[in-house]
Design brief:
This protein has four helices and 14 strands. The protein has 249 residues and is of the alpha+beta class. The strands form two sheets. It has a seven-stranded antiparallel beta sheet with strand order 6-5-4-3-2-1-14, covered by helices on one side. Strands 7-8-9-10-11-12-13 form a seven-stranded antiparallel beta sheet. A hairpin with a 2-residue loop joins strand 3 and strand 4. The chain is globular and about 55 Å long. InterPro entries: DUF6503.
């Protein structure tokens, strides 16, 4: 009997130690993931339309598959990105003539949409480094400000991008984000939540996509520019026809 109690105590102690070993930034992100969907992310296939393209997204801690489907002058195009790599088919036939450059461009495009649609779930990936920049305030609301960078190994082609997330002190929702990127000429953006849809226990957010007149500024300057009214609306990020299918284990 004593041995059983000792084993239970050791399990609880180990779990407590693991929890306490997480940094403040990791704990803030953990709470945000829970607020946005929690365990629902782990066993769901998500579908939505974005800018007339249909996406199907599936992601677990060790495997993923991102699919987009659309029609153009060549026919019905399906792009698939998963653990094995990228494949494009047109009218059901695999395209084997894509250059590495175009494979990279298509992969980044598919991955980018999946990344933003799944936020904040992906922020606990092993290649993600999180740092707390303390508390701040926007529009009278208090936020934890988290900076995210990526490891070169496992961080993808965009590993040198930098992100900031404003996570609500009271509700743990991400109301704003900003990021700098270096592909396709580079630049910096800020996104402000413009609408919310809750489907299948997951919170999906639409955004206004904002840009500064000078895109060489650091991502840390974006809050200052936003509050000064010096960001212009570049586009809207709206997910439509959202479906969430719970998958059996």
């Amino acid at each position: 009997m004593r041995l059983r109690y000792l084993l239970v105590f050791l399990v609880v102690l180990t779990a407590f130690a693991a929890c306490n070993s997480r940094t403040e930034a990791e704990k803030i992100v953990d709470r945000s993931i829970e607020a946005h969907g929690g365990d629902n992310y782990f066993n769901s296939k998500i579908e939505f339309d974005f800018r007339n393209i249909h996406y199907t997204i599936f992601k677990t801690p060790d495997r993923f598959e991102y699919i987009r489907e659309f029609s153009d002058s060549t026919g019905n195009v399906i792009d698939s990105l998963n653990n094995e790599g990228f494949v494009r088919t047109v009218n059901g036939a695999k395209i084997d003539t894509l250059s590495e450059e175009w494979i990279g461009k298509y992969s980044r495009s598919v991955n980018s949409v999946a990344y933003f649609a799944f936020l904040p779930y992906g922020l606990n990936d092993p290649s993600v480094f999180k740092t707390s920049l303390g508390e701040t305030e926007i529009n009278g609301e208090r936020y934890d400000l988290i900076k995210v960078t990526f490891a070169e190994e496992g961080g993808g082609d965009d590993f040198d991008d930098e992100f900031l997330y404003w996570i609500g002190k009271d509700d743990s929702f991400i109301d704003f984000m900003a990021y700098s990127y270096h592909t396709d000429g580079g630049g910096v953006r800020m996104r402000e939540v413009s609408g919310v849809n809750e489907v299948g226990g997951i919170r999906f957010q639409n955004y206004l996509n904002l840009k500064p007149s000078d895109e060489s500024v650091s991502v840390e300057k974006m809050q200052e520019l936003y509050e000064a009214g010096e960001l212009e609306v570049l586009s809207e990020i709206n997910l439509e026809n959202i479906k969430v299918e719970t998958l059996k284990n």
